[in-house]
Amino acid sequence: MKDYMKQLKSQLLNRKIIAIRYMTDVEMNQFGWFKKPLVIQLDDNTFIIPQSDDEGNNGGAMALINGQNFNVIPTT
To answer: pTM for the whole thing?
Structure first.
C-alpha cells in the first residue's frame, strides 16, 4: 500500500485542475458504460474518472465534502 500511495502522490499532488466536464456519449460507449460520470482533467493531461467499482463496470457518482457541506456530483 505504501508504494501505491507513493505513486499516487507523485501523480496527483500539486497538479492543477484545468477542466471539468461530463463524459461524452462516444467515451461512454467506448468504456461500455450506461452512465456518464464527471471527468476531471489535470494540467499534465491526466484524467480522473469515477467508476462504480474497481473493475470499471460503469461510471460513478462522486461525493463532494467540505466541512459540514455535503453534495453529490451525479452521473448523467
So the answer is: 0.86
